[in-house]
Write a structure and sequence with these properties.
Strand order of the largest sheet: 2-1-5-4-3-6-7
Shape: globular
Distance between the termini: 68 Å
Number of domains: 2
Helix content: 25-40%
Number of helices: 13
Number of strands: 19
Radius of gyration: 24 Å
Largest sheet: 7 strands, antiparallel
Length: 552
């Protein structure tokens, strides 16, 4: 093709979106692990032969989508298009060339039409286990954290690499779930390929490079136009979070140019000895997402959109970790980066960004088994499960913050029934946490309270990696901070928010998630809104008097 009509571009663009969404839904519906099946912690997309992302599935997270967008280029460096064969599938969990830690697999598959390669499909998913020390920040090097899979052929011209699968099975605690998810990832790309081939036959396309050029260039122009309307200059901001062995400072400078935005993290803290270090690919993913949410949320996310935001950071900082740093909990840092960027953009674009939120997921990595929660039978039934949950988001410029909302990750909360169905755990309580949203003219979103016990009255453990315990989400423009988080036992003992804690038999784990910061002076809150908060139990009468100066 040399030219595509306007009508055909719109029709084929919408068709591509349906192709990648079916690709993503195939992964969700065939996955074994709750992280993919229930929480949607995945990504899926179609790429041209130059490794440029053309379209992504709506189902997915920014961390997975935007790192996947960069990872396909790494695959092409090792497996050139000219050497790809029909039936090939490639795989990696290299944190620096994939999604930032070993617990995510990236799978890439070529698509062939009448014997010629025409496109690439890629997808990612978070796994329940990858061996090593488990889902904890306690690792000190990448070698502690599990099985490292370099860029390899998973399938060679239709022949499965059974040696690799045997290696994976022998190194993980949940081999059925992990290998089941690998097959789900392959099925995801296979469905995408079938649907794309059907689309190309219907529209009589011999290649998709021309369509890709049109889509990507339009997105880049739309980003340039959106950036061109912004004020020009450089603005800086910083944020302190809990960290592990010491508090961590995240420092950013945002420079708005004529058609690009540059975010530089010079001044941020150095790497940690624990596994909260963030590889640059993950820093780029969430920084770009945070910028695009404010600057051009209407522009489709693809190679053209991503090209408009440049992200830099000195190597060896917490946001640009180098090998062999431990990186399992890189989301502790990555999820905070939009808030840091918003501290800069709030100066350039008043009344456009929200207050700080919990941001970091409060993921319950729950586990039991010999050597972790006891010895032999005294350790209880062995299991490992991820259960994603969220605190409150920050108040918006003219609205309250959303409660129990996983911004910026987009990962859905896992239903308690899913956790109870595959483990001996019981979720006795899951409700919004009163008084956790920061006071303000617009209130911060509420966190949650959860209470977890064992139906066997046996011990179980939690690998904690929680933020906003000592440094809660800050408000903006006079709004108050959200409540800090807390981890404890029902019997009263306060637990560490980092590392492995064991819940004794006949006790329960209590998780109090943080709230988002408020926006504006609390005394300016509408009386009807405050009365409704008190009526619904979001704000206690005592807090209404203390924070809002009223007897509502």
């Amino acid at each position: 093709m040399t030219r595509i009509s306007e009508i055909d571009v719109q029709i084929m663009w919408n068709r591509l979106l349906s192709v990648v969404e079916e690709q993503g839904q195939t992964l969700v519906r065939t996955a074994f692990s709750t992280s993919a099946r229930e929480a949607g912690d995945i990504s899926a997309g179609v790429f041209d032969l130059r490794g440029r992302m053309i379209a992504q599935a709506v189902t997915g997270t920014p961390g997975h989508v935007n790192t996947m967008a960069a990872s396909v280029g790494h695959f092409l460096d090792v497996f050139p298009v000219a050497d790809m064969k029909e039936g090939d599938v490639y795989i990696t969990n290299d944190p620096w060339k994939g999604t930032g830690h070993l617990y995510d697999l990236v799978v890439v598959s070529p698509t062939f039409l009448d014997g010629r390669i025409v496109a690439l499909f890629a997808c990612t998913s978070h796994l329940v286990d990858m061996g090593g020390v488990g889902q904890t920040p306690e690792g000190r090097q990448i070698y502690h954290e599990g099985l490292f899979i370099p860029l390899l052929r998973l399938v060679n011209a239709g022949a499965m690499n059974e040696d690799l699968l045997a290696m994976i099975r022998s190194n993980v605690r949940e081999p059925v779930q992990v290998v089941g998810d690998i097959y789900a990832l392959m099925a995801c790309n296979e469905i995408g390929s079938r649907r794309l081939v059907a689309m190309m036959r219907e529209f009589r396309l011999g290649e998709i490079e021309t369509l890709a050029d049109e889509i990507i260039s339009r997105s880049r122009r739309a980003m340039a136009e959106a950036i061109g309307r912004l004020p020009k200059g450089t603005w800086s901001a910083s944020m302190r979070i809990d960290g592990y062995e010491a508090p961590i400072d995240l420092v950013a400078a945002v420079t708005i140019g004529e058609d690009t935005i540059h975010v530089d993290f010079t001044g941020s803290s150095g790497m940690s000895t624990y596994a909260i270090n963030c590889p640059m690919c993950y820093t780029e993913a969430y920084t770009t997402f945070g910028v695009n949410c404010v600057v051009a949320p209407h522009v489709p996310n693809n190679a053209g959109t991503l090209e408009a935001v440049k992200v830099t950071a000195p190597e060896g900082t917490i946001v640009s970790a180098t090998h062999p740093a431990a990186v399992y909990a890189r989301s502790v840092i990555g999820h905070m980066l939009p808030d840091v960027v918003y501290g800069c953009l709030d100066q350039a674009l008043p009344d456009r960004v929200p207050a700080e939120g919990t941001s970091n997921l409060w993921t319950l990595n729950l586990i039991a088994g010999h050597g972790l929660t006891g010895i032999g039978k005294a350790a209880g039934s062995a299991f490992m499960v991820n259960s994603f949950h969220s605190g409150g988001a920050g108040a918006r410029p003219a609205q309250d913050g959303l409660s129990a909302t996983p911004f910026p990750s987009g990962v859905r909360n896992v239903p308690v029934e899913a956790t109870e169905a595959i483990t001996p755990l019981v979720i006795w309580r899951k409700e919004l946490r009163q008084d956790s949203g920061g006071p303000g003219r617009y209130r911060g979103g509420l966190g949650q309270v959860m209470e977890v016990g064992s139906r066997e009255n046996a011990p179980f453990g939690i690998f904690a990696r929680f933020e906003r315990v000592r440094h809660p989400a800050r408000g903006r423009k006079g709004g108050g901070p959200g409540a800090p988080g807390r981890l404890s036992l029902a019997s009263g003992t306060v637990l560490k928010a980092k590392g492995l804690s064991v819940v004794p038999p006949n006790d329960r784990l209590v998780i109090e998630m943080p709230g988002g910061g408020g926006m504006g002076v609390p005394t300016e809150r509408e009386p009807d809104a405050l009365r409704n908060d008190v009526r619904l139990g979001y704000v206690s009468p005592q807090a209404a008097r203390r924070d809002y100066g009223t007897e509502q």
